[in-house]
Amino acid sequence: MSTGRLIIDLDAVVANWRSLDAMTNCKTAAVVKANGYGLGAANVAKALFKEGVRQFFVAVVEEAEVIRAELGPKPEINVFSGHMKGDTDAVRELRLTPMINSVDQLTRHLETLPDHPFGVQLDTGMNRLGMEINEWAAVAEVALAQRPKLVMSHLACADEPDHPMNPYQLAQFRKMTDGISVPRSLAATGGILLGPEYHFDLTRPGIGLYGGLPYAEAQPVVELDLPVVQIRDVAEGEVVGYGNSWQASRPSRIATVSGGYADGIIRMLSDRTRLYHGETPCPLVGRVSMDLLTIDVTDLTEEPAKLTLIGPQQSVDDLAADARTIGYEILTQLGARYQRKTFGK
Ligand SMILES: *Cc1c(COP(=O)(O)O)cnc(C)c1O
After folding, report:
1. Taking the mean position of all CA atoms in its chain, how far away is CA 175?
2. What is the pLDDT of residue 175?
3. Ligand 1 close to Cβ of residue 205 (< 6 A)
4. E-only strand ranges, 59-204
5. Distance CA 126, CA 232 (A)
6. Which of 145, 151, 219, 300 gets the highest tally of CB atoms within 10 A of its CB?
7. Mean pLDDT of the chain
8. Domain at 248, CATH number
């Protein structure tokens, strides 16, 4: 085996969905955009569908095809980017529910697909997607007369429970939607953890399903083992890797393992993380290259056949912290070259 082995535990995904669902008294959807946060949207959606999940969210219509093909006609597949120019055929044929983001999108939808389901996305301060308060005031009556499936908004700071943006956005959302008789949704993973006033009728967790922060109690979902290609002795004073960036301060053993920035092990991790042999940390030394890493295994008593980058000793979020990023980015960059082993459900 010459590529890394990525193990994806769908039972853990399902367990995480169940735990998040149990925190609310409302419905719980599943966000499977970006190929299920890099873990395989079809497999993830299938496992969750078996568990009873009937509402899924993707970012763009192109992502919906594989999910509709896998799950058949039953589940609702909602699209955050709404009904963009060129989306009409896919929205109709795949029976998607676009979250309408603007007056333009609303017009397009009602003109091209009258009677086809849709939702509405409102902007409550994040300034990314959705209608703003004045736009919504202008078209709410027309839109609501068509009985949208959902009215939703998204929190910008839900991973910081004490951030004043959270109650501000909650108040904006209430101001824009109180009194309407359409199901409402505000919370993603972080919003679920903020408490019941954020839950409304439907929550939309993504990262929590896949074992990432801010859901600290999540079960880990992925493990990543990288095979050792060769091991060499390096004398004190010798250098390792591109740019001579690491120099041995003692006689060392260096393992070269298969995996690099082309596999999502971002270059920022150079000299900043470690791989594990069982419970023993082995520092990544020198620069991450496209296909290879160099690891200091001097302190091991045996020659490892593989080393673990993500596993029991080091979570996705630990790795993200080393890389000065977030778990979301580590997960969604996990490479296509790995041998992927998906088990469970
Ligand atoms: C990505 C996304 C989610 C899921 O967010 P997580 O933080 O991964 O739970 C929910 N809603 C919207 C609008 C999103 O873009």
Report:
1. 30
2. 98
3. yes
4. 76-79, 96-100, 119-121, 151-152, 184-185, 202-203
5. 52
6. 151
7. 97
8. 2.40.37.10
Among 23, 31, 221, the mutation site with the greatest number of ligand 1 atoms within 8 A of its Cβ is 31
> For the chain, what is the domain count?
2
Residue type at 214 in one-letter notation: P
Structural domain of 271? 222-343
User: Which structure tokens are listed for 309?
Assistant: 């980058």
| 1 pLDDT above the threshold of 70 | no
Which of 179, 210, 241 terminates a domain? The answer is 210
Q: 204 and 315 share a domain? A: no
242 flagged as catalytic: yes
Model confidence over 163-203: pLDDT tens digits?
999 999 999 999 999 999 999 999 999 999 999 999 999 99
Same domain, yes or no, for 318 and 279? yes
168 C-alpha vs ligand 1 centroid, how far in Å?
19
37 catalytic residue (yes or no): no
Q: If you search the block for the tokens 């940390």, which residue do you land on? A: 281
Domain of 44, CATH number, reads 3.20.20.10
Does 54 count as an annotated binding residue?
no
338 has a pLDDT exceeding 80: yes
